[in-house]
Design a protein that fits this description.
350 residues; alpha/beta; Aspartate Aminotransferase, domain 1; Aspartate Aminotransferase, domain 2; 2 domains; five-stranded mixed β-sheet; 11 helices; globular
């Protein structure tokens, strides 16, 4: 009964998330989740706050979490915005900073939510074609535009852009907003957070889902100068003033505080990523150098779709994107050493 749908819904092609294993036990390497559990301090804080205060609304301004985040990154609390996962913060950003009729720029191979949001909010866009090695030709962002957004490291390739190139993009677009989506920055990339004070056109987005093992809590945040954060707050308060619940707030605060655990787990993922990448190259795979918690690989025979199906049949989920430019590649999340050993052994058996 689609006759009740709006024209917007009819013309929308929604983002397709990675497959969730509900009925069968898989080694799950398809959604870039952290293979290690959250800090025990996070779990303890959540348990301690399951009480009768859940009947009350949480702090709509999330001041305590903002203070913790700003202290960690060495910026002001007024330069922090938090939301219900970085995807929500992304949606707010499209509404807050991009205008219909003005063409924004983002890579042609990138996070597939960008074109979805652009269409929903009636934002015109043009894609910047990546180089053959999947590197980003950042000079293409010097062209006239109504705003720029790109992930660093990029998804699904895992390649990063150095801070020197990001500075050039910011300088060339001083009158336009530049949004850098740093969902995977903690796995080896160089964050642009240190540029916030110098560039009034910069917004940096990050998440607790990946490096802090909190994909299930849905906590994301943006960092930028006060005038940009105010714009995001105006959009948020027009939709939902209470974006983060009490338990998510407490868990996120402890995740930032337990820096020792954070450093330990992200280092383990980086080490595993490099070890697995080396093994795959010896097996004849093309492995794109990654600064994320996943790798982008092409099998020797280039038949990525066939390999995707074989792996699934053998209890391993990876991500295959049926797009012309990347049809020969699979994105493989980095799991535990045991999970990745099983992945390599399965490939060897093939």
């Amino acid at each position: 009964m689609r006759k009740y749908w709006s024209e917007l819904v009819k013309n929308t092609e929604p983002y397709v998330p990675g497959e969730q294993a509900n009925n069968k036990k898989y080694i799950k390497l398809n959604t870039n989740e952290n293979p290690y559990p959250p800090s025990l301090k996070v779990i303890e804080a959540i348990k301690n706050n399951v009480d009768n205060k859940l009947r009350l609304y949480p702090d709509p301004s999330c001041q305590e979490l903002k203070k913790i985040i700003s202290g960690y990154y060495g910026i002001k609390s007024k330069e922090v915005f938090v939301g219900n996962g970085s995807d929500e913060v992304l949606a707010f950003s499209f509404m807050a900073f991009f205008n219909p009729g003005k063409e924004i720029l983002f890579p042609n191979i990138t996070y597939s939510f960008y074109p979805v949001y652009a269409k929903i909010f009636n934002i015109n866009y043009k894609t910047v074609r990546l180089n053959k090695d999947f590197s980003l030709p950042f000079e293409e962002f010097f062209k006239s535009n109504g705003g720029i957004i790109f992930p660093n490291p990029n998804a699904p390739t895992g390649k990063d852009l150095p801070l020197s190139s990001i500075k050039k993009i910011l300088k060339k677009n001083i009158n336009n907003i530049v949004i850098i989506d740093e969902a995977y920055i903690d796995f080896g990339g160089e964050s642009a957070v240190g540029l916030v004070e110098d560039f009034p056109n910069l917004i940096v987005l990050q998440t607790f889902s990946k490096s802090r093992s909190l994909a299930g809590l849905r906590v994301g945040f943006a960092l930028g100068q006060k005038h940009l954060i105010e714009a995001l707050a105006r959009i948020k308060n027009s939709f939902n003033s209470y974006t983060l619940d009490r338990l998510a707030l407490k868990g996120a605060i402890e995740a930032i505080k337990d820096n020792k655990y954070f450093e330990k787990t992200r280092y383990k993922i980086i080490k595993t990523r490099e070890k697995v990448s080396a093994k795959l190259r010896k097996m004849g795979f093309d492995v794109i150098g990654s600064k994320a918690n996943f790798i982008f690989i092409s099998p020797p025979d280039k038949n990525a779709e066939d390999l995707f199906k074989k792996l699934k049949e053998n209890g391993i989920l990876v991500r295959y994107f049926n797009q012309k430019e990347i049809k020969d590649y699979l994105r493989v999340s980095i799991g535990t050493d045991q999970e990745m050993d099983s992945f390599i052994k399965t490939l060897e058996n093939f």
